[in-house]
Amino acid sequence: MKIAIFSKLTIKEDEIRKKLENFDVDIFPPIKRGDLTSEKIFDYDIIGIIDGCFLQSTAVAHREILKVIENNITVFGAGSMGALRASELDTCGMIGVGSVYNLYKNGIITDDDEVAVTFDDNLNQITFSMISFREMINNALNEKIIDENDLKRLITSGKELYYPLRTFENVIEKSGISGEKREVLEKFLKNQPDIKRNDAFEMLEEIIKYIEKQ
Q: Which superkingdom does the taxonomy of this entry point to (predicted)?
């Protein structure tokens, strides 16, 4: 089976190739509108969508995904744009994977900007996603680095910032957390796992399982 993966941001190309080393896979940058309309896309048996463009280009349309599904291509989604679109199109056959997908599916998270990040021309992430930040600061609360009031201020500050401005420094500054607590929190956050990244790897695992069942 021939696989197309849209990512290179949440997880890098070499990580995807290592995970899918025994499979025929092509890896593309974050998906944007028009990427699924090329005739070449119909050569694939499986499409996995992780990352997608928000600010940089127009987002992939629902009808594009539906068209490839109608042409008997299996489409998986996880992590970022993939999770968002899967939560909207799983009743039409798109397969959603992971925690972010489930948060959208169950209506716990509803805003598109929760998974949006900005990145440079080399696909290096500049800002963090709100959905990942929520997980990280909840971990900080559990570790008693912050308290409930800090948590609420951080969430409010993160949501009030336009997503291209969401860096740890900007959000913490806006929240009013300062001094030693700020230093400890910033260090903690920079060493936290990313929920979107974990989901992306889970999707690759699900693709492998799917192929092995065929």
A: Archaea
The residue among 4, 5, 8 whose CA lies nearest residue 123 is 8
Q: Quick one: 100 and 174 in the same domain?
A: no
Q: What's the whole-model pTM score? A: 0.94
Count structural domains, the chain: 2
Query: What is the separation of C-alpha 160 from the centre of its chain, rounded to a whole number of angstroms?
Result: 20
The number of angstroms, rounded, from the C-alpha of 196 to the middle of its chain's C-alpha atoms is: 5
Encoding tokens for residue 169? 């420094």
Per-residue pLDDT of the chain (214 residues; tens, 9 = 90+): 999 999 999 999 999 999 999 999 999 999 999 999 999 999 999 999 999 998 656 899 999 999 999 999 999 999 999 999 999 999 999 999 999 999 999 999 999 999 999 999 999 999 999 999 999 999 999 999 999 999 999 999 999 999 999 999 999 999 999 999 999 999 999 999 999 999 999 999 999 999 999 9
Q: How far is CA 72 from CA 53, 60, 65, 92, 149, in A?
A: 25, 19, 11, 12, 50
Instruction: Work out the angle at residue 127's Cα, subtended by the Cα atoms of residues 112 and 135, and round it to the nearest 5 degrees.
Output: 65
d(CA 87, CA 104): 6
Q: Is residue 176 part of a domain?
A: yes
Q: Determine the structural domain holding residue 94 and report its residue range.
A: 2-112+195-213
Query: Which residue type sits at 117?
Result: V
